[in-house]
Amino acid sequence: PVTIKKLLVALVLVVVDPSINFHVAKSSAVETYDPAKLVTEILKGLCSSEQVCETCLFKDEITSTLLSPISHFLDVADHQTPSESTLLHVADILCMIASSTKGRRHLIYGEKKDVFTRTKSSAAHIIAEFTKKALLKDLPKEAGQAPSQAVIGSYLYICHQLYNTCEGLLVLYPYELHASVAKAYQQASQEAESVPTPTPIEDDDSSSDSSSLAAKESYDLLHWEDTLRDNLLNFASTAKGILLLQQTGALNECIVYMNARYEKKLQVSKCEKFGYGYMVTQLAATAPGMAALEKTGYLKALISELWAVLECGPSDAPLFTPKSWPVDPVERISHKHLIRLLNVLSAFPAVYEVLATRPLPTKDSYTFREMPDTIAGFLDRLVLLNSPAKVHSLFNVEQSHAFGLRVLSVMISCLDTHLLLQAQYKFQECLLSDQADNLHHTDSNEIIVDCLSVERNNILVRSYQLGGPSERTLPPRIIKNMENPYPYPMFTSYPIPKEYISNQGRSAMKQDNELIKFLDSKKPEKGKAWLEKCRTILVKLLQTKPEQVKGKVVQKLLEQAAAVMTTITEEAIFPLLQFSGNDSSVKKFNLSPLQSLGIKIAVRYGIHLKVIHTSSEATEKLGHLLKKCALFLQQQQKPVDSKLLYLQGSYPGFDWFASTIFIIFSGNNEKSWEFLHEFSTLGASGYLWMPRLHASVHLPTALMSSGIPPLFSSTGHNIELILQIELPLVASAFRMSGYTPTQICLHWLKQCFWNYLDWFDICHYVCVCLIMGIDYQVYLCVAILKHLQKQVMEHMQTQDLIIFLKEEPIHEFHVSKNLKYMQELEKKYRKIILPDLLNITKP
């Protein structure tokens, strides 16, 4: 009996077998009824249904038959060289298979679809090897004539469909396709420059023939150059891909190309439904990506479009119907522009790149048609309205200022951005002054409640008091009860009213448990044996009595773990260097205004938690600790030859991890320093402690000078890898929202979950990542996104996912309750993820 599999193999043979010669004579009729073309269309039709494909088409025997023409080029035998049309038909079918998730996985893993036992003989490996050799003109001569650019482009596009996902890049990474495509692109660019521009010559047939041939050659070269540039650009779909693209040196050219397509509203490719929004957001999470976006004019165009919607366009366009009267603070028509702007201003490295050292372009007067064309100009005109000239220059003052305040509110949810904006532009003083101007009477303390004063009040509270879900009260933006419309007090000076500060009680319960006994034991095990036992006890205690893992227990645990782990070679991947400075060099060291502000905020949070008692002494001690850490890390940095502001000098952000350790050790800067000094040798330090690997000599030169931290290219990439496999709905919701999981996870991790989790859970996060392994940082972020799945889906529908994730704390999430799920992820993924995180020192 003929099975479906046998039938499909027979059909595929019609396409791929060169011995079946249907082309008796070349004629248009024969080509119209070409059986290979007909079968290709049938198979492509089958590919439109994932279920049908999974049952019938995704079989290793069928796939290997389909791949036989390109296998011929890799394993030369006595086969007839496949024709160009055969190779293009095969590419067409493979392209349709790769356009669906199940099809892509079939090409990557084969019929068994086992993610964890990858075979080198799967279709993806054969396609990647063929494409790489064809690009580098490295195919064996015995295989016959080399494939044309059209064929190579078709197979490169299939690779692009694979490597623009984290799973695909994981498998294709060893082939270094980014380097091969970049090399081919440079050659094509050089050839395109040397081809003379064809000019029409009249009355000479031979000349006109050669002219049209030159024109075709020139067009083919330009088309080939665009094909290569497009495939290079698509590495920017993943976090690790952006690093690879940056290392090719072609990032700027690719973003110029993307911007040109973006302006024409072209989709990314023939098989992808969405535009470039997701890719722009991924790029804007990095300093080099943002610098390139600014250079190509993307930001200027974004602000220009935004201004046209909020205020007025660059020219008068007669309106035949009046604009609708706004009923929301941010109208639906401007909401899309709000999200686009927030997507590119989400990450601190990007904001630093476009705002650091740039003053506001304030003027004494503005014309009505004058538009801002930079981010600083946007903040000057719509956020910090501190002069009558700015107010009078706007047509829709209230709507435009409300829009600006919403942007500011989301931007300052990133604490580093908050400190930068306050240090450079004093936004808090400006908003307090605006609140004072909004008083009912000059002699009363009542502030008029309106859209702007409510928004300002929210920002002023949010930017003064730090805390997790149960540690502070944020005033709402919406008035629900008309009898008592706004029961929250407004104010015109700091500190904030006590109504916004929730009382943090300190429990003085006696801590006596198995973990304390283990840490206090007189004859402890050594090295790995100690660590294994510690893991077992910590997991048991977190799952049964998590409230006992706090205070002195956490201090002892961190101290002993750091001391033991420095003796384990797999954990201690960096050398332990002695601090070469002294007290006078520490005192002379200058912290930036941003870092000085950060110290005040951190100490205020410590006092609020009742862990630190005196403000002035704690401020001095934390300042001393941060200066000592900065000097110590400076010993391990080298100057980078880069135009990026982010890489000039020491780490530009605030050291949230060192501040977390300072509060864990109750403001004891000696103990904090001893821990951080030992901790600096561990691989985990590169991911938990952001300044640790900034411009560090321990990184390969290409990675160090890229401006892309390992937290982005490794942790962020691996979070997206697991999401695509474990939580595909969440991964899709992010893609459809044009926002990336990497961006929000880096935001949480860089500031050690301050403002997102309660202090109790922040301590558990540090303990778990140190004791259980740094890959738990990845599993924790996946567990949080799993916890938030319902809200992520809802906010994808309402198109405000970025606002929800950045402004809202993570309610009802506890590290201890999700430890079991994290352990399940560890069993599945550790052998892929942990080596990737710890191999950062290798080129």
Automatic annotation (TrEMBL):
Alphabetized UniProt keyword annotations: Cell projection, Cilium, Cytoplasm, Developmental protein, Signal
Stretches for region Disordered: 192-211
Transmembrane segments: none
Stored InterPro entries: BROMI_C, BROMI_M, PHAF1/BROMI, Rab-GAP_TBC_sf
Domain BROMI C-terminal Rab TBC-like: 414-840
Main location: other
Gene Ontology BP annotations: cilium assembly
Ranges for domain BROMI middle region: 1-393
Leader peptide range in chain numbering: 1-27
One Pfam assignment: BROMI
Compartmental location: Cell projection, Cilium; Cytoplasm
GO cellular component terms, A-Z: cilium; cytoplasm
Described purpose of this protein according to its UniProt entry: Required for high-level Shh responses in the developing neural tube. Together with CDK20, controls the structure of the primary cilium by coordinating assembly of the ciliary membrane and axoneme, allowing GLI2 to be properly activated in response to Shh signaling.
Protein name: Protein broad-minded
